Task: structure prediction
Amino acid sequence: MPLNDPAAIVAEIRQRFQEKGNEMYAGEAISQTEHALQAAFAAEQAGESAELIVAALLHDIGHLLHKHAEDCASQGIDDLHERIGAQWLVRYFPKDVTEPIRLHVAAKRYRCATDAAYASRLSPASVLSLQLQGGPFDSVEQEEFEHNPWSQAALRLRNWDEAAKVPDFATPELEYFLTYVRSVLQQQTPDPGE
Result:
């Protein structure tokens, strides 16, 4: 797929959602697509940039790319979806999209280390994945995260991620949010050095 062809990239993203988006989202009562749409809708309602809305939509695209079973966490497997997704997306999108995605699991680990109330609200599926992802950060990891220039965006993304688990919640369709994807891609100038 050409790196500078927004239509082809949007088509590839659409295909990923068509192929695996109807699978249940990691032990929750919604599908992967519903989760993505709810997160993107929350970002849009918060008045965020197009880049962060796209990050919210695509934050779990790694789940649609990897070859593990949907219930791999219950089998003790960390699917590393944040890394897989960010690595796939970095070819096409600016860091304002890919870095919050890469860091959204780190944001959960950070929040669990620094906010007991947040940790107590995690769903059982999120608690299980937290254990597989390394558990709450230690003090060194917390400090490193705090100094990352994308940490605040990742924390906002994490909030939308946690809230985006509501069965039967009405959101705009995927095609609506793909207009944000197309817009960000059209503004992007590929960096030949990456």
